[in-house]
Amino acid sequence: MLTVEWMQRQDDHWCRLERLDLDSVDTGGVYMIWHGGDQPRVVRVGQGGDIAQQLQRLKEASEILAYKSYGELYVTWAAVPTSKRDGVVCYLTENWSPLIGKPCPLIFPITVNSPFD
User: What angle do CA 84, 88, 89 make, to 5 degrees?
Assistant: First the structure.
């Protein structure tokens, strides 16, 4: 299993997607967006060489913001080497069944620790 450090705010709370200060995000890797509420669900799993750029686009995307009606939108991310990102995204997608996204292609999943443990 690949162990990564999932990011939270300094006070150990999850980052709210819409209020996230992207100047503090300076890594490439994988990310997860989910909504809170009575029945929290993962909305999207993704990756990028510049997570800040990805999240800037997604925090304004209507397809993501549509899930705000279920609860606050949260995000976390982790630095993951480029060579392992596809496998980690595949694992997270298979395990969390995000509401937005495609099934992962024929890529070997790389097990990673859950951000919620």
Answer: 120
**Residue with the two structure tokens 């800037």:** 56
What single letter denotes the amino acid at residue 27?
T
- What pTM did the predictor assign? 0.93
User: Which parts of the chain register pLDDT below 70?
Assistant: 10
Maximum CA pair distance of the chain?
39
Give burial (CB, 10 Å; 0-12/13-18/19+) of 83. exposed
Q: Provide the pLDDT for residue 25.
A: 85
Which residue in the block uniquely carries the two structure tokens 């495609």? Answer: 102
DSSP string covering 2-59, please? B-------TTS-PEEGGG--GGG----EEEEEEE-SSS-EEEEEEEES-HHHHHHHHT
Q: What average pLDDT is seen over the chain?
A: 92
